[in-house]
Design brief:
This protein has a single domain, classed as 2-Layer Sandwich (Alpha-Beta Plaits). It has about 80 residues and is an alpha+beta fold. The chain contains two helices and four strands, in the order E-H-E-E-H-E. The protein has a four-stranded antiparallel β-sheet with strand order 2-3-1-4.
């Protein structure tokens, strides 16, 4: 297992309930170990197993919910 930690900025995040919804959807992706959306900073923090999930899959789920994903950075 190779855990990858990523932080990304979300666009169009308009309320705390939206942040909760994104957190819930991303958390349910197979291979995602931890997901958190911080409404006050519009940031998604996610840790996932890159042998099971991919960043592209995570980003696609968020985009389908109507939110843009920018400024992706790996964190250690």
């Amino acid at each position: 297992m190779a855990a990858v930690k990523v932080t990304a900025r979300l666009e169009n995040l308009s309320c705390p309930s939206c942040a909760d919804m994104i957190t819930s959807v991303v958390s349910k992706i197979k291979g995602v170990e931890e997901a958190e959306v911080r409404y006050t900073t519009s940031k998604l923090l996610v840790t996932y197993d890159d042998e099971v999930a991919s960043w592209e899959e995570i980003e696609e789920k968020v985009t389908k919910l109507g939110y843009g994903v920018t400024s992706k950075k790996r964190r250690d």
